[in-house]
Amino acid sequence: MMEALGSVAIGAMTLFGYNRKNFMYDRKMRQEQEFTIAEMRLKQADLWREDVRDITELTERKMDTYLIVNALQLGFTITLMIEG
Asked: CA–CA separation, 58 vs 63, rounded Å?
C-alpha cells in the first residue's frame, strides 16, 4: 500500500513539475506578447502625433502662402484705388 502511495506521489510530482514548466513557459510568452503589444501601441501613438504635426505644419505653411498672396492683392487694390 505504501509503495502504491509512493508511486502516486512521485507521479503527481512529475505531473506537477511538467505542468509548472508549461505554465511558466506560457507566462513568459504571454508577458513578452503583452510587452510587444504595448510597444506597438506606443509606436502607433507616436505615428498619430507625427501625423497631427504634419497636418498642422501644412496648414501653417498654407496660411503663410495665403498671407503673402493676400498682402500682394491688397497692395494692388490700394494702388488701383489711389491712382484710379
From this structure: 9
How far apart are alpha carbons 76 and 74 in whole angstroms?
A: 5
- Judged by DSSP in three states, 17 sits in helix
CA distance 66 to 70: 6
pTM for the structure as a whole: 0.54
Which phi and psi (to 5°) does residue 42 adopt?
-65, -40
- Whole-angstrom distance, CA of residue 27 vs CA of residue 33: 10
3-state secondary structure of 1: coil
Q: Is the pLDDT of residue 4 over 70?
A: no
